[in-house]
Amino acid sequence: MRAFKLWEPRRWERLRWERHPAASFPSGAVTGKELAAGRRSHQARSHLGWCGPMAALALALSFAGHALAQDVLIRNATVHTADIRGTLDNTDVLVRDGRISAVGSGLSAPAGARVVEANGRPLTPALFGGITEIGVEEVSGEAATVDSAVSLRETQPMRPEFDVTLAYNPESTLVPVARVEGLGFTLLGATTGGSFIAGQGGVVRLDGGADTIGPRALFLRLGSGGIELSGKSRAAQWMLLDQMVSEARGRVPVDSPHALLTTAGRATLARYLAGEGRIVVAVERAADIRQLLRWAGREGVRIAIAGGSEAWKLAPQLAAAKVPVFVDALGNLPADFDRLGATLENASRLHAAGVAVSFAQSGDASHNARKIRQLAGNAVANGLPWEAGLAGLTLVPAQVLGVDKELGSIAVGKRADLVLWSGDPLDVIHVAEQLWMDGTSIPMRSRQTELRDRYLRQAGALPRAYTP
Amino acid sequence: MPFISSGTRLVLLAALGLASTHALAVTPNPRFTQDPYPGTYRAIASGPVLIEHATVLTGAGERLDDADVLLQDGRIAAVGRALQAPADALRVDGRGKWVTPGLIDVHSHLGVYPSPGMSAHSDGNEATAPVTANVWAEHSVWPQDPGFHAALAGGVTSMQILPGSANLVGGRGVTLKNVSATTYQAMKFPGAPWGLKMACGENPKRVYGGKGGPATRMANVAGYRAAFIDAAEYIRKNTVKPTPKRKRWFSRPSGGDATDSSGDSGGKRDLKLDTLAAAINGDILVHIHCYRADEMATMLDLAREFGFKVAAFHHGAEAYKLADRLAAESVCGALWADWWGFKMEAFDGIQENILLVDRPANGCAIVHSDSSEGIQRLNQEAAKVMASGRRIGMPVAPERAIRWVTSNAAKSLGIDKVTGTLEVGKMADVVLWNQDPFSVYAHAEQVYVDGARVYDRNDATRQPESDFMLGQGDAKEGAL
Predict the structure, then answer these.
(1) How far from each other are the two terminal CA atoms of chain B, in whole angstroms?
(2) Which residues of chain B make contact with A430, given a CB cutoff of 8 A?
(3) B166-182: string of b/e by CB count within 10 Å (b at 16+)?
(4) A303, A444, B89, B104: which has the highest count of C-beta atoms within 10 A?
(5) How does DSSP classify residue A314?
(6) Is the CB of residue A227 less than 8 Å away from at least one CB of chain B?
(7) Cα–Cα distance between B115 and A139 in angstroms, integer?
(8) Is A410 left (phi over 0), alpha (psi -120 to 50) or beta?
(9) Nearest by CB: B352 against A139, A335, A452
(10) Rounded distance, CA A231 to CA A191, Å?
(11) Is B84 exposed, middle or buried (0-12, 13-18, 19+ CB in 10 A)?
């Protein structure tokens, strides 16, 4: 069970928060018997040939079959490059061998290439889906399908070496549900279970592939959200962190009876202390962010902030320290005493001060990852420049996560992970019309569109179960 | 769209308005719906307001371009082109802007699960017994919840505050006007019936599975039935029986309540059964948290068994599978635009749910929030549904979509005769948007409740702030 999602509301909000079911499952709540029953029903479903996962599997295999992507010429698009070239009107994008090979006007299609007329519609890089548990949780309320947290409280709770990407299931129904909305990559996040050090995650592209790209990220939760996991004081978070750093730097004997970390944990933390990969810190209160900046400066680690409700209060310091922030751009309520300063202008104030801004959701960031576009749009409605809103869904997270050589903008040489939109990609009134991953046109289908189409039809003589 | 002269349209609207002016038609049985905590809401006095040259969505299915809306004495006084207004009317330039009825959220926990969400503020689930029809959500409402003001900035003028979904029967919900007040009584929507919150499926069995049950869906249903059997019996005992005819001229009457002046021969008053009895009588409207189509069908059978009506199913991730039946039985679906998968009973959620519930002729689709974030953006939630519709060749016009957050919501709360549309005579609960509201960029610029401008995005003196937010350092504005 996960004690906290990254930005989970308080546990006593359970049942009201229909969409935050993890809060509703205290560890003792699910008995062994219930778990066994759950497994049985799962097996029964498999025997009955329940088609969801099978369909997803078939879909994944069809991608795997595309060793060579078809060449594509997308003509006359409004190309939002997401980098310094900004928006290019009436522009063509040529895709060869899965990569963007040319961006310009009047490009000619090579033999055999498919031509897509955009008619001025917006073309963007495939979007960042946020910090999610896509593929590491299927049904949030069912512990047997949730792998995002480790909770070894009785033995050795501090496990930075925990790597959630090992549980990633590219055939999860959440993958197609997310990508048909134009989401092309996500940061799989470890969530806190037995410790405020959640463990590691990494970036996956939502193309049905099994592997991560780029470096790992280490997840950490500070402030009131981690108090129950740090001896009931946020001050102890720094005490414990400092001790772990000492261990990782070899200043504590491996056989010390007070050691918090395993040997593997020491090695893992040492890599981040050496500057490999980001430490993504979920933290909200300005006072805690100030301490974090001091700590990160002292230890020389590269951090990013996730949540950061009050980050705007330290915008100049964050900009100077080059600390990016994944903003929950819909969070404007004083949800707790760490977030009294929450405001819809957080993103715009940070950006104005020179902080790199991306987005991350509270709530069900995984099943409803597609909502991240709404975050960017609302940030723009509250003062963030539109181009910065798009960059926050594309180039900024790619840079922050160390995958910008591969994706995050429409530039020659990058992977052709592209989306054609019905209109403004930051406005909820528009939708993704076509997604390409590595230049391969992705079927815009998911388990949800299958359900939709089954019930869109008028009822026939046979029950709907007989419809394809 | 064929041009209809403003005069014709105005007459039409006025006629509709006249038919539905004034007090609610609800005539509660005072025995079960006495209110010892009566509402004290008074509209804020304000002069007439004329919003001119705006795009108007009436909430009754119409769109009027370049139209005016006149608010006077707290009511919608006129809607149409080139309206005459009193000399003292405040004129608001609506060019390029849109006007809609005030938005209504049928599923909110503002006040009962307020911000900040501290343990001391956890007042929404009386999770101590599976049937707590005796509790009233209003007794948990903290009027200082900053979420009320945030919702107001999103154009919400009325909402139903419900107990949570831990229990089979969670208690009474209350409909409030979204006005700043020290007491909840001063927010109570005048004349609105109470709601009864019930819950299907996973939540009750999860909460009580280890606490004596229900632990299964079958026990959930047994629990509802036991409660309503008690309520039916309570109604019988509390019904004043006619005095039987004397068999002989000299015999004494017996068996009736003639000698019982107060008519309460049924014995001690029972708060739990008061609420359930009023639900059976139709004086309290039944709102059921229910995700799966099969469970909704079971609840409709339950309603028939005990003679009550379901006003709306809430959350209803699978409502689309039962859309025709919901429409046929005049049951609303109060739904999300896109939440799914957080538990098994939400696994079949689709983005077109609201669209498919709206599709049948008598369909009653509602966009609800169940969230202090979502309630601020009901217009954006509706826009998502419109986008999903367009994607599959089922476009929905703004004048239709606005009903999901106004008139349909009002209908399910039993307040549609007095709010939910811009028909003449109704409460002047009105939102002026800076643009087409079905966009992520739309802002509610001005919000009127009973004709008073209670929110103005461009006027700091018309932006209410909770007591709680005062003196919280540089919480909102300060620099460093």
Answers:
(1) 55
(2) 387
(3) bbbbbbbbbbbbbbbbe
(4) B104
(5) G
(6) no
(7) 27
(8) beta
(9) A452
(10) 18
(11) exposed
B295: left (phi over 0), alpha (psi -120 to 50) or beta: alpha
Q: Are A188 and A135 in contact (CB under 8 A)?
A: yes
Residue A335: name the closest of A22, A15, A17 by CA: A17
Give the confidence band of B245 by pLDDT, cuts at 50, 70, 90: low
* Predicted model pTM: 0.90
Look at residue B299 and tell me whether its pLDDT is greater than 50. yes
Minimal C-alpha gap between A150 and chain B (Å): 19
Contacts A–B by Cβ distance under 8 A: 182
- One-letter amino acid identity for A448? Q
**Distance (Å, whole) CA A122 – CA A80:** 7
Q: What does the buried/exposed string (b/e) look like for B431-463 if buried means 16 or more CB atoms within 10 Å of the residue's CB?
A: bbbbebbbbbbbbbbbbbbbbbbbbbeeeeeee
**Which pLDDT does position A154 carry in this prediction?**
79
The reply to whether ipTM tops 0.85 is yes
Sign of CA dihedral B184, B188, B194, B199: negative
Cα(B478)–Cα(B302) distance, rounded to whole angstroms? 56
pLDDT higher than 50, residue B26: no
Model confidence at A70, pLDDT cuts 50, 70, 90, reads confident
Q: What is the largest CA-CA distance in chain A?
A: 75
B65: closest CA among B441, B399, B378, B479? B399
A99 beta partners: A96, A415
Q: CA separation (Å) from B203 to B169, B221, B345?
A: 12, 13, 10
Specify the pLDDT at position A53: 37
Taken in order of first residue, the domains within chain A and their CATH numbers are 50-126+410-468 (2.30.40.10), 127-407 (3.20.20.140)
β-pairing, A127-132 vs A325-327, is unpaired
With contacts defined as CB-CB under 8 Å, which chain B residues touch A29? 206, 210
Contact B66, B52 (CB under 8 A): no
The answer to whether the CB atoms of B342 and A367 lie below 8 A apart is yes
Q: How far is B406 from B382, CA to CA, in rounded Å? A: 11
| Gyration radius from chain A CA atoms | 23
Structural contact between residues B75 and B425, judged by C-beta atoms closer than 8 angstroms: yes
Strand-pair partners of B51? B69, B92
Closest Cα partner for A324 from A355, A360, A283, A346? A355
| Contact criterion met (CB < 8 Å) for B124 and A16 | yes
Write down all domains in chain B, each with its CATH number in brackets.
6-242+254-469 (3.20.20.140)
Instruction: Give backbone dihedrals phi and psi of A214, rounded to 5 degrees, phi first.
Output: 75, 180
* DSSP three-state, residue A133: coil
Tokens at residue A396, please?
Answer: 């900024």
